[in-house]
C-alpha cells in the first residue's frame, strides 16, 4: 500500500474513530485530541501495518492504548513521593482518613424527607428520579404533563427547604 493509499484509508476511518474516542474520554475536545494523536501515530508507524489486515481494528487498538497510556501518565503525575530522609511528609499528621459517616446521616435525612412528602408529589418525583421522562410519568399516572412538572418542581422545592442544613454555600 502506497503512502497516498494509506493516508486515504486513514482519512476514511477517522470518522468512525470519533464515537469510540468520545466513549473513552467523555469530552469532545479530549476526543478530538485522541483521534488526532491516533492518526499521527498510525501514520508515523505505517510501516508496522501489514497489508491485508484490518486497518480499522489496528486504529482502534492504537487509540485504546494511547488513551490508557495518557490515563496512567495522569495518575502518575498525581502521585506524591516523599523523598525526605526521615519521611517527614508521610509521618506527619496532616493527612486524615474520612469515614463518610456524615454522608450516611445525610442520606437518612433525605429518605426521611422524601418519605414525608405527600404521595401526590412523592410518586412523580421518585419516578423522575428513577429516570422516567415527564411524558412517561404523565402517561403512567394519567395526569397532564404540566401537572407532573409542577408536582416534581414542588417536591424538589420542599426537599430543598427541608434539607437546607446540607447546603454547601
TrEMBL record:
<dbReference type="InterPro" id="IPR013325">
    <property type="entry name" value="RNA_pol_sigma_r2"/>
</dbReference>
<keyword id="KW-0731">Sigma factor</keyword>
<feature type="domain" description="RNA polymerase sigma factor 70 region 4 type 2">
    <location>
        <begin position="108"/>
        <end position="159"/>
    </location>
</feature>
<dbReference type="InterPro" id="IPR007627">
    <property type="entry name" value="RNA_pol_sigma70_r2"/>
</dbReference>
<dbReference type="InterPro" id="IPR039425">
    <property type="entry name" value="RNA_pol_sigma-70-like"/>
</dbReference>
<dbReference type="GO" id="GO:0003677">
    <property type="term" value="F:DNA binding"/>
</dbReference>
<protein>
    <submittedName>
        <fullName>RNA polymerase sigma factor</fullName>
    </submittedName>
</protein>
<dbReference type="InterPro" id="IPR013324">
    <property type="entry name" value="RNA_pol_sigma_r3/r4-like"/>
</dbReference>
<dbReference type="Pfam" id="PF08281">
    <property type="entry name" value="Sigma70_r4_2"/>
</dbReference>
<keyword id="KW-0805">Transcription regulation</keyword>
<dbReference type="Pfam" id="PF04542">
    <property type="entry name" value="Sigma70_r2"/>
</dbReference>
<dbReference type="InterPro" id="IPR013249">
    <property type="entry name" value="RNA_pol_sigma70_r4_t2"/>
</dbReference>
<comment type="similarity">
    <text>Belongs to the sigma-70 factor family. ECF subfamily.</text>
</comment>
<dbReference type="GO" id="GO:0006352">
    <property type="term" value="P:DNA-templated transcription initiation"/>
</dbReference>
<dbReference type="InterPro" id="IPR014284">
    <property type="entry name" value="RNA_pol_sigma-70_dom"/>
</dbReference>
<feature type="domain" description="RNA polymerase sigma-70 region 2">
    <location>
        <begin position="12"/>
        <end position="73"/>
    </location>
</feature>
<dbReference type="InterPro" id="IPR036388">
    <property type="entry name" value="WH-like_DNA-bd_sf"/>
</dbReference>
<dbReference type="GO" id="GO:0016987">
    <property type="term" value="F:sigma factor activity"/>
</dbReference>
<keyword id="KW-0804">Transcription</keyword>
Amino acid at each position: 500500500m502506497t503512502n497516498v493509499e494509506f493516508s486515504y484509508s486513514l482519512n476514511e476511518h477517522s470518522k468512525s474513530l470519533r464515537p469510540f474516542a468520545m466513549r473513552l474520554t467523555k469530552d469532545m475536545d479530549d476526543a478530538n485530541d485522541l483521534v488526532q494523536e491516533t492518526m499521527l501515530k498510525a501514520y508515523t508507524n505505517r510501516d508496522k501495518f501489514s497489508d491485508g489486515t484490518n486497518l480499522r481494528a489496528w486504529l482502534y487498538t492504537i487509540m485504546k492504548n494511547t488513551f490508557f497510556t495518557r490515563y496512567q501518565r495522569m495518575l502518575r503525575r498525581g502521585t506524591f513521593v516523599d523523598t525526605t530522609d526521615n519521611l517527614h511528609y508521610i509521618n506527619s499528621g496532616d493527612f486524615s482518613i474520612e469515614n463518610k459517616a456524615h454522608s450516611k446521616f445525610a442520606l437518612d435525612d433525605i429518605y426521611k424527607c422524601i418519605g414525608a412528602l405527600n404521595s401526590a408529589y412523592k410518586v412523580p418525583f421518585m419516578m423522575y428520579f428513577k429516570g422516567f421522562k415527564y411524558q412517561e410519568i404523565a402517561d403512567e399516572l394519567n395526569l397532564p404533563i404540566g401537572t407532573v412538572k409542577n408536582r416534581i418542581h414542588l417536591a424538589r422545592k420542599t426537599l430543598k427547604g427541608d434539607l437546607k442544613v446540607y447546603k454547601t454555600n
